[in-house]
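Sequence only, no structure available. Ideas?
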Amino acid sequence: MKGYRFFGRTTILLVLLSIGLGAFSQHNTVNRMYEIWDDRTAPNRGNDFTVQSKGYPADPDWEAHSYPIGNGYMGANIFGRTDVERIQITEKTLANEGLYGKGGLTSFCEIYLEFDHYNPTRYKRSLNLNEAILYVDYEHEGVHYSREYLANYPANVIAIRLSADKKKKISFTLRAEIPYKRGINEINTRFGTINAERDLLTLSGSIQHFTNNYEGQVNVIPEGGKIFAANENGAEIRVEEANSVVLIIAAGTNYELSEEVFLQEENSLKLDASVFPHDKVSRTIQQAADLGFETLKATHLQDYQQIFSRVKLELCSTVPDLPTRALVENYRQDPTDVYLEELLFHYGRYLLISSSRQGTLPCGLQGVWSQYLVTPWTGGFWHNINVQMNYWGAFSTNMPETFLPYIEYYNAYLPKTRESATAYIREHHPEALDDEGDNGWAIGSGATAYVIGGAPSHSGPGTAGFTSKLFWEYYDFTRDTAFLRETGYPALLGASKFLSKTLKPAENGLLLVDPSASPEIRVIDENGEYKGPHYRTIGTTFDQGFVWENHNDVLKAAEVLGAEDSLLEVVRDQVHRLDPIQIGASGQIKEYREENEYGEIGDPHHRHISHLCPVYPGTLINSNHPYWVEAVSKTLDYRGNVSTGWAMAHRMNVRARTKEAEKAREVYSLFLQERVLPNLWTVHPPFQIDGNLGTMAGVAEMLVQSHEGFIELLPSLPKAWETGSFEGLVARGNFEISLRWEKEKISFLNIVSKSGGTCTLKVYQSAGIQIKDREGTTIPYVRKGSSLIEFDTRKSGEYIVTM
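Reply:
I predicted one. Tokens follow.
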């Protein structure tokens, strides 16, 4: 467990963003291009959905070989085929009953482009992560064909351009399919029709369960040539001998995110059955067509790149000239080429931008992509770790606006979760019930666009604090006091109000959550079989830990705002009586208070490590408690690295926090070998986006940490990353950092003071530190202990620190 020291004369710059990147560019002259690419089309096994993935009918080529694009509202999986191109479309708000009756994401439609180009040469399909544009290029019968695919967020369309290097060479037939019209059962019957008229293909219908009315349109805009529409043998549009063609795809439903969606118990009344999205989709198509492809491309690039380009990361000096599937195959045999570790980080940022934008639903288990009739685990927002993991890296990797959809989602579900809190307290703690009905808010695990989990079940009441942690983190990274006042502090206060009522007095003046659970743990009998329902007890580490986390965060928030509330005195009393962390006889962090030796209760190699959540994403276990940190390391050794994709990502983040650099990379490397597909999607299995996004957060956590009140650089740097650089990672306090290191020694550091305030930096040098602002004026600093310095910064100020 080690940090990395400053060697020689190190210069630290604290600068404004627009200045900082320019200053850094003097040291890093080339912006690396990242792409997922292949020299083969996605395989075509007939799309018969005969393969089962965890019991769900699935096309393995969709999961492993298609390339995803998305704009938050909808996603498309592109196969890049030259005979019959397949474009599978997902729209986030289209749902059937799904699993557990909560409503589940379901595939919107399939679009096919019949080119009949067989045996192409010089073929390449590539997803450019710097641009969020997918390209297909190949030659056929002496003609070079090109395609561009993009998902434009401002216009809410998917736009495709087909072109060739010779005139009159673009000919194809457009068809579409509404999948799964037979549905799951009677109440999930999906009705729909497809109609072709002139240059427009329209798909429309309804799914009965929520009276979810939907419509999709594909506008075909040829340059030259002829266009025909026909409906005799199924709706189709035929283009012949065009010079180029633009396709614009839009989709929508009658879903509106609102409090009523969650408060309304009757499924058929959650949406207005009289509303059809035809006019909305038609306007979207027409407005996009009026703009034209070049403008759509330009606005897309401007919108996407202003987020994606904030961060750069290089862990190696060269980029292998190999298809991505070959990189994955090679890494499985020899995990020494760290370029794949670098590439997966950038892919994670791409996926989160593509699946979570303001005004859309949050990023779910599968992001914004689903091929399924019944999406695994609904494709929803699971609050026992998955949805939180989706956003762990949003702040440190400089994409805080991707969290805005969850804030909007929270505001809509809040009234229902207040009802849930009251119901829970009435059942379990009637003596603590507020007769006027203000018992805070409580959330369970499963949630979708239509249903929010009520009183916590297998995950315990601490799930509220596990969720509210994201609100404090959003503030702490952005220092957005307006958000804290209007949303963050009320959310934390409401969670504390609920959690304070779940505690019961115990011996020695302690307060313990009762009943309590550690997510998804069940007792195993002597034959290794699960026995009974999820294990219920008193005062699990998960629940106690997240009462502490939320109480601690709400007190900090109140101090920032100068807020007063009678509940704060209760919180101040309770936060010191929780005794959340205990070490067992095996030297482990105990998951349960009644546990003695490790593994006495539940599966000793379980995917969840909920008792270690107070390390990450929590802050309770830190370097101020070295015995706890040592016990965390032992616990992870007992638990093992091999697990589901997201669970390995969590282990990686915890190892980063314990400063075990080699072990953090070890689990990351194993994850890349065992849980990454040829298209770099990661699997539970099946595909879940939390593995991609959790490891993205893990890479950032290995390079910068700030959860202990100071900025620590390269806190968990493995030897395989001995030389590298990054730009734009963010530390709490809203300091944007750019860094270069060579052979584990920091050679250049640039920090942007975006909100002003005090900057506290961990250093190891006792003398010779000098700080100057941009004008060359010497700035005083204060040494705090043996390894910290702190100095005041002004918003948009620039500082040079020489050591």
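The mean pLDDT is 92.
Hope that gets you unstuck.
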